[in-house]
Write a structure and sequence with these properties.
Elements: E1 3-4, H1 6-12, E2 17-21, H2 25-28, E3 37-38, H3 45-52, E4 58-62, H4 68-77, E5 83-87, H5 90-96, E6 105-107, H6 109-115, E7 122-126, H7 130-135, E8 137-138, E9 142-143, H8 152-156, E10 163-167, H9 172-183, E11 189-192, H10 195-199, E12 207-208
Parallel strand pairs: 1-5, 2-3, 2-4, 4-5, 6-11, 7-9, 7-10, 10-11
Antiparallel strand pairs: 8-12
């Protein structure tokens, strides 16, 4: 486990290295190292780590202060052996050094409802599993399950000129998805806070419930 200074971390950032930021999604969206993928230590992180990150990848970590050792140990228990280090002092150190940062815009489901009638380039992306999407979803939403978003073919189906509003069930998966989209060069990305749990109770937001096949 190697603690890297900002300069060392910057030098270690290569195209073939994955930067994993394990801070909570609500903190991550406010600012992060460009190219980072958010897999917060809360939630079903192990499941999503194994579905999204190949075991042969080299990894750099950005973690909450004090969680560095526990994070490395937990990922090594999943047989991620190419861990090249972590950013000493975490994201705050990067920001204080004046390095470039990125952000994800958080919006409420009410704001989504207000934007739909007035944005011709609006695209609603549902990153839940197919069976969740099939049970009920926002009208005109497209289903891009999170587990498939590392597939280059799936990413290529996204419209890079659209204003993408991304939601999941409760907000954890959507931030992971937004971080992957940002990493792949999609910048007009918004995270819908509270996910479908909030959406289904929002007035003026049409929900489609497909009819069950007989």
């Amino acid at each position: 486990m190697k603690a890297l200074s900002v300069t060392e971390f910057e030098q270690a950032k290569k195209e073939d290295i994955i930067i994993i930021d394990t801070r909570p999604s609500t903190t991550f969206t406010l600012g992060f190292v460009p190219g980072s993928v958010n897999i917060g230590n809360n939630g079903q992180w192990a499941q999503w780590a194994e579905q999204l990150i190949s075991k042969d990848k080299h990894i750099l970590f950005i973690t909450p202060k004090g969680e560095e050792a526990a994070t490395v140990k937990a990922w090594k228990a999943l047989e991620y052996i190419h861990i090249d280090g972590y950013l000493k002092g975490g994201y705050d150190t990067w920001q204080e050094a004046g390095k470039p940062i990125d952000m994800i815009i958080d919006i409420t489901s009410d704001e989504l409802a207000l934007d739909i009638p007035f944005d011709d380039k609006l695209s609603i992306i549902d990153v839940r599993k197919e069976d969740e999407f099939d049970a009920a979803h926002v009208k005109d939403a497209e289903n891009f399950p999170l587990a498939k978003l590392t597939d280059t073919f799936q990413i290529a189906q996204l419209d890079d000129e659209a204003n993408m509003y991304v939601y999941c069930g409760g907000g954890y998966r959507s931030v992971i998805a937004c971080s992957i989209m940002k990493k792949e060069g999609f910048h007009n990305v918004r995270n819908v806070l509270g996910g479908f749990t909030a959406i289904k109770d929002t007035p003026n937001l049409a929900i489609e419930v497909p009819k069950k096949k007989k």
